[in-house]
């Protein structure tokens, strides 16, 4: 089973518990934001591109990618929580 199937399965499970099927729950919205933030553990594509272009240290991108994806996830969760809190 590919990884994206787990996300679909999780969303279907949350939808089953959702009382109003036409409106996302707060948990569903947060899940979508985290999924969209696309946290990267090892950015293999970027490393491969850097390697193919002759980079002397193609893996030097790992820590900055971690920082960027963590910041994106935090910003996304913060915005989602603010929209949930003030949107009601």
List low-pLDDT spans: none
First-to-last CA distance: 38 Å
Query: What is the assembly state of the chains in this entry?
Result: single chain
Largest sheet report: none
Element-level helix/strand string: HHHH
What do these coordinates show?
By secondary structure, the protein is an all-alpha fold. It has a domain of 49 residues. It is built from four helices and no strands. The chain is elongated. The mean pLDDT is 88.
Q: What would the keywords be for this entry?
A:
69% helix, mainly alpha, elongated, 88 residues
Topology:
Elements: H1 3-17, H2 26-37, H3 44-52, H4 62-86
Helix pairs in contact: 1-2, 2-4
Please give a quick description of this structure.
The chain has 4 helices and no strands. It has helices spanning 3-17, 26-37, 44-52, 62-86.
């Amino acid at each position: 089973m590919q990884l994206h199937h787990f996300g679909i399965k999780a969303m279907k499970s949350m939808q089953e518990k959702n009382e109003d099927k036409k409106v996302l729950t707060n948990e569903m919205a947060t899940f979508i934001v985290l999924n969209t933030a696309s946290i990267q553990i090892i950015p293999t594509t970027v490393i491969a591109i850097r390697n193919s272009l002759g980079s002397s240290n193609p893996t030097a991108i790992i820590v900055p990618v971690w920082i960027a994806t963590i910041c994106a996830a935090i910003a996304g969760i913060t915005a989602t929580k603010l929209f949930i809190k003030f949107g009601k």
